[in-house]
Amino acid sequence: MTTLTLTPPAPVRWWNDRLALSLGLLVLVILVGLLAPLLAPHDPNATNLMSRMAPPVWMEGGSWTHPLGTDQIGRDLLSRTFYGIRTSFSIAAFGLIFSAVLGITIGVLSGLIGGWCDRILMMFVDVFIALPNLLLILCGIAVLGTQTWVLVVMIGLVRWEAYARLVRGQVLVVRELGYVEASRVLGAGRRWIIMRHVLPNLASPLIVILTLSFPGVLLMESGLSFLGVGVQPPTSSLGRMIGDGRNYLINAWWIAGIPSLAVVIITLLFQVAGDALRDRLDEVNHD
After folding, report:
1. Directed axis angle between helix 199-227 and helix 133-144, to 10°?
2. Dihedral (CA of 84, 86, 91, 92) sign
3. How far apart are CA 116 and CA 137, in angstroms?
4. What count of other Cβ atoms lies within 10 Å of the Cβ of residue 190?
5. Fold that domain 93-286 belongs to in CATH
6. At what angle do helices 133-144 and 148-157 cross, to 10 degrees?
7. What does pTM read for this prediction?
8. Of 38, 101, 149, 212, which has the fewest Cβ atoms less than 10 A away?
9. Which helix (H) or strand (E) is 214 found in, with range?
């Protein structure tokens, strides 16, 4: 008789786990933004024309007083990058939350109620999909101003339709399942069905799409600030810093290069985390 010996899989080290590594680095980036007032070595808005366009410490002429150098009016780039991460990340996060809540609400109502309500809501979705996002945001900013809450609302208004379509499709599938029909027959109301049956089944796909959508929202905020219609000076944001440094790329590339690198790192981490999370959830569902 042959005895089969099962060897347990080798444990996956956290540095070899894409999900754990990317999430850990994202937590670090978030902490840098939250703790910017404590970590920043200088006032991000303090100017010093005597040290304008100082290079980073690893270049000739750089010093540890300004490790990442200074911008065109002598402001410390390390401090402004910390505060820029805080500003850009906050606007993108709140804009994403606003769009997700709006889209999920409309998608659930459209899929669960159906009929004329579904047709009207999906008509609004089609209208917003047809509108150019940038044009809609610029019109809103022209009417309401450039305050932070305006950016959050306008970013949310141009991103919600994707969540509405996804959630509606999932609800149309979930509402036909046997246990949902049983709950309805037993007298469960729509609120109970939504909270106990619909939303739990939407958690996995929503987490993945939110993670993968964040880079686009962050790039949208950075693009608006780069064009000068987003965050206004002297408030520091990554897009604003890139816009301020675009005229100095030849003589002082670090003014725009360092915030650009921060944007690339954050978007890359979210993309890796989203892909790894999707793979992990697929493995769980297959098991």
Report:
1. 70
2. positive
3. 29
4. 13
5. MetI-like fold (1.10.3720)
6. 150
7. 0.82
8. 38
9. helix 199-227
Angle at 215 between CA 121 and CA 253, to 5 degrees: 140
Contact between 34 and 86 under an 8 Å Cβ cutoff? The reply is: yes
Label residue 115 left, alpha or beta by phi (over 0 means left) and psi (-120 to 50 means alpha): left
Q: Are 151 and 87 in contact (CB under 8 A)?
A: no
CA distance 180 to 73: 63
At 225, list the tokens.
Answer: 């600030």
Candidates 160, 155, 157; CA nearest to 231 is 155
8 Å CB contact between 217 and 160: no
Residue 61: count other Cβ atoms within 10 Å of its Cβ.
10
Distance CA 239, CA 228 (A): 9
Question: Rounded to whole angstroms, how far apart are CA atoms 141 and 131?
Answer: 16
Per-domain boundaries in the chain: 93-286
Tens-place pLDDT, residues 57-112: 998 888 899 999 999 899 999 999 999 999 998 998 999 999 989 988 888 888 87
Residue range 142-156, pLDDT digits in tens: 888 878 888 888 888
Cα dist from 280 to 132, 213, 230, 272, 284, whole Å: 35, 18, 36, 12, 6
> What is the radius of gyration, based on Cα positions, of the chain?
24
Q: What is the pLDDT of residues 227-267, one digit of tens each?
A: 888 888 888 889 889 988 888 988 889 999 999 999 999 99
CA distances from 141 to 134, 147, 150 (A): 10, 8, 7
